[in-house]
Design a protein that fits this description.
The structure holds 2 protein chains of 2 kinds. Chain A is an alpha/beta fold. Chain A has helices spanning 18-25, 43-63, 76-90, 106-117, 135-141, 164-174, 247-282, 311-317, 338-342, 347-351, 364-383, 386-392; strands at residues 6-7, 70-73, 97-101, 121-125, 146-150, 177-181, 200-204, 215-219, 288-291, 301-306, 321-322, 324-325, 353-357. The longest helix of chain A is centred in the middle third of the chain and has 36 residues, at 247-282. The two termini of chain A are 39 Å apart.
C-alpha cells in the first residue's frame, strides 16, 4: 500500500537513505559496535565513541563549524528548547526580552510561551506578505534588554528563506545572541557557520534522510555562548545534554549529513526542475495562489491555495498522494495554519492550502501523475462547492454576511 | 487523521458520482423549493441544501433534494448522508432528524461532530425558507 502512494511530504519527514540505514545497523547488534560511547574502560566503548566523534565531524563539516560546537539532542525540537530556554535562563540577569516571529515552528513558539510564563517578555514579529522576516524588522524591535533573537532559516510550511546573515549582523552588533532553527535547510541551502553571525543553530536528522529521534544544537565557542542544561544526569555533551548517546542514531545522522554535503547540488538541481514543472502546471488551475515569496524560497517546498475548496477534502480527493495541508481540519485545534494567517491571507485561503514537498527519491513520473490528478480533483470538488457556484454567478463572497 | 471507512466511502462516492448523490441546484425562486445555507468560508465549511416538496394531503413531502458543500471530507459526507435520509419524508419528519443519526451512520469522531450539527441546521433552514413561501 505504501508504495502505491506517491510521497510528496518530504518537509514533514524523509525516508532514511538506504546507505544510512545500512551503516546504522552496524551499531546495534552483538556482532556490531553496540558499546556505550561513555565507557572508557574497554574497546566496545572506545569504538562507539570513535563512531560518535566521526559522526560529529560529518555534521560539523556540512555546516562548517568546529565539531566541538555540536551537541547531540533528540531532535530539532529539543535543540530549539535547549537553545531558547538555555540562553534565557543562563543570561537572566543580563536581560529578559526575546524576539522571535509568528511563523516559527511550534518547537520555537512553545518554549517562548513557557518563558513568558516565567516572566520573560517575548516579541513575535509579523512576516511580510511573502512570509519573510527582514533584518530591518528585527532591528526595529531590539531593546536594551533583548538577550536572544530566534528566527528560522527556512520556513517549514512555505519554504521561504530568511536572511540570517543580515539578521545575525544586526543582532550581534546589538550584543544579543542569535538562534536559528535550521531543521528545514540542511542539505537544501548552504550553511557556513564560520562566516554566519549565528550563535546557536538547531538541526534535525530526519528532514535530511537520517533517522527520527536525533538532532543537534550548534553552540558557538568563539564568541562563547553559554546555556543552562534542560536534562541533567551524567554530564554528557559537556554537561549541556546528559543521557547515554544513542550511537546508531548519531551514526545515522552523521552519515545522512555526510551524504547531504555530497548531494546538495544534485538534489537541488533535480528538485528545481520538478518545482518549475509543478508550478507551471499548478498555476494553470484557475484561482490557485502560491503562498510564500517565490523569489525567495527553497524549491523543495511548494505551498498552494486552491480557492473555493477546502484543503482537507482535497487531500482526501488526492488519495494516492501523500501531502499536507494548512487546513484547520487536519489539525487538532480546528484553527487554520497560523503561518498562513500571519501572511495576512484570508482564512478561507488558509483553509484551502496544500503543501507539496519534494525530495531525493521523488521521480519525474510522481510529479506528472500528481499534476494529472490534481486538476481533475480540484474541478470535481469545485463542482461540489457552493462557494464556487456563487463565484461563477458573479457573487462577491466578501459581501455576504455569513452566520458563523 | 484516520477516517472511518464509511466517511471515506461516502466522500468518494459523492465525489465520483455527484449527480447520483444529488449534488446540484434548484432554482431558489421556485415556489416549491426551500433553500438553506449554513456555515462560513472563514470557518472552513459551508453547506447549501435545497428541498423540493409536493403537497400530500395537508402536509408536504420532500420529493427531491440538491446540495453543495464546501468543507472537509466529513462535512461533505455528512451532507450527503443527510440528503439520503430526506427523500420521501414529510417536513414534520424531516424536522425530527437529529445530528446524532448522521454521527452514528458515518461513525464520526468527536472532533467532526460539528459537521453533523451543520447538516442538521441546513435542513432546518431549508424547511423554514420553504414554509415562508407557502
Amino acid at each position: 500500500m505504501a508504495n502505491s502512494t506517491i510521497y510528496l511530504d518530504y518537509a514533514s519527514t524523509t525516508p532514511i537513505d538506504p546507505m544510512v540505514a545500512k551503516k546504522m545497523i552496524n551499531f546495534m547488534t552483538p556482532e556490531g559496535e553496540f558499546g556505550n560511547p561513555a565507557s572508557r574502560s574497554h574497546r566496545y566503548g572506545w569504538a562507539a565513541d570513535e563512531a560518535v566523534e566521526e559522526a560529529r565531524s560529518h555534521v560539523a563539516n556540512l555546516v562548517n563549524c568546529d565539531p566541538r560546537e555540536i551537541v547531540w539532542t533528540s531532535g530539532a525540537t529539543e535543540a530549539d528548547n535547549l537553545a531558547i530556554k538555555g540562553v534565557a535562563r543562563f543570561y537572566k540577569s543580563k536581560g529578559n526580552h526575546i524576539i522571535t516571529s509568528k511563523i516559527e515552528h511550534k518547537a520555537v513558539l512553545d518554549p517562548c510561551r513557557q518563558l513568558e510564563r516565567e516572566g520573560v517578555e517575548v516579541t513575535y514579529l509579523e512576516p511580510n506578505d511573502g512570509g519573510v522576516i527582514s533584518p530591518e524588522a528585527v532591528k526595529e524591535v531590539l531593546k536594551e534588554n533583548t538577550v536572544l533573537v530566534s528566527i528560522m532559516h527556512v520556513n517549514n510550511e512555505l519554504g521561504t528563506i530568511n536572511d540570517i546573515a543580515g539578521i545575525g549582523k544586526i543582532v550581534r552588533e546589538h550584543g544579543a545572541f542569535f538562534h536559528v532553527d535550521a531543521a528545514q535547510s540542511t542539505g537544501k541551502v548552504e550553511i557556513n557557520l564560520s562566516e554566519l553571525p549565528v550563535d546557536l543553530m538547531s538541526f534535525s536528522a530526519h528532514k535530511t534522510y537520517g533517522p527520527k529521534g536525533i538532532g543537534a544544537l550548534f553552540v558557538r565557542r568563539k564568541p562563547r555562548v553559554r546555556i543552562e542544561a534542560l536534562i541533567h544526569g551524567g554530564g554528557h555533551e559537556r554537561g549541556m545534554r546528559s543521557g547515554t548517546l544513542p550511537t546508531h542514531q548519531i551514526v545515522g545522522m552523521g552519515e545522512a549529513y555526510r551524504i547531504a554535503k555530497l548531494e546538495i547540488n544534485n538534489d537541488r538541481k533535480k528538485i528545481e526542475k520538478f518545482h518549475e514543472k509543478f508550478l507551471k502546471e499548478a498555476l494553470k488551475i484557475e484561482h490557485a495562489y502560491i503562498n510564500g515569496d517565490l523569489e525567495n524560497k527553497v524549491p523543495n517546498i511548494l505551498n498552494i491555495s486552491f480557492n473555493f475548496i477546502e484543503g482537507e477534502s482535497l487531500i482526501m480527493g488526492l488519495k494516492d498522494i501523500a501531502v499536507s495541508s494548512g487546513s484547520a481540519c487536519t489539525s487538532a485545534s480546528l484553527e487554520p495554519s497560523y503561518v498562513l494567517r500571519a501572511l495576512g491571507r484570508k482564512d478561507e485561503l488558509a483553509h484551502s492550502s496544500i503543501r507539496f514537498s519534494f525530495g531525493r527519491f521523488t521521480e519525474e513520473k510522481d510529479i506528472d501523475k500528481t499534476i494529472d490528478i490534481l486538476g481533475n480533483v480540484v474541478d470535481r470538488l469545485r463542482e461540489l462547492s457552493p462557494l464556487w457556484e456563487m463565484h461563477l454567478d458573479g457573487i462577491d463572497l466578501d459581501t455576504i454576511e455569513w452566520e458563523a | 487523521m484516520a477516517y472511518s471507512k464509511k466517511v471515506v466511502e461516502k466522500f468518494e462516492n459523492t465525489l465520483n458520482n455527484p449527480q447520483a448523490f444529488k449534488v446540484g441546484k434548484f432554482d431558489p425562486k421556485e415556489a416549491n423549493v426551500g433553500t438553506g445555507m449554513v456555515g462560513a468560508p472563514a470557518c472552513g465549511d459551508v453547506m447549501k441544501l435545497q428541498i423540493k416538496c409536493d403537497q400530500v394531503g395537508n402536509t408536504h413531502v420532500i420529493k427531491d433534494v440538491k446540495f453543495k458543500t464546501y468543507g472537509c471530507g466529513s462535512a461533505i459526507a455528512s451532507s450527503s448522508e443527510l440528503v439520503e435520509m430526506l427523500i420521501g419524508k414529510t417536513l414534520e419528519e424531516a424536522k425530527e432528524i437529529k445530528n446524532k443519526e448522521i454521527v452514528d451512520a458515518l461513525e464520526l469522531p468527536p472532533i467532526k461532530i460539528h459537521c453533523s450539527v451543520l447538516a442538521e441546521e441546513s435542513i432546518h433552514q431549508a424547511i423554514e425558507d420553504f414554509e415562508s413561501k407557502q
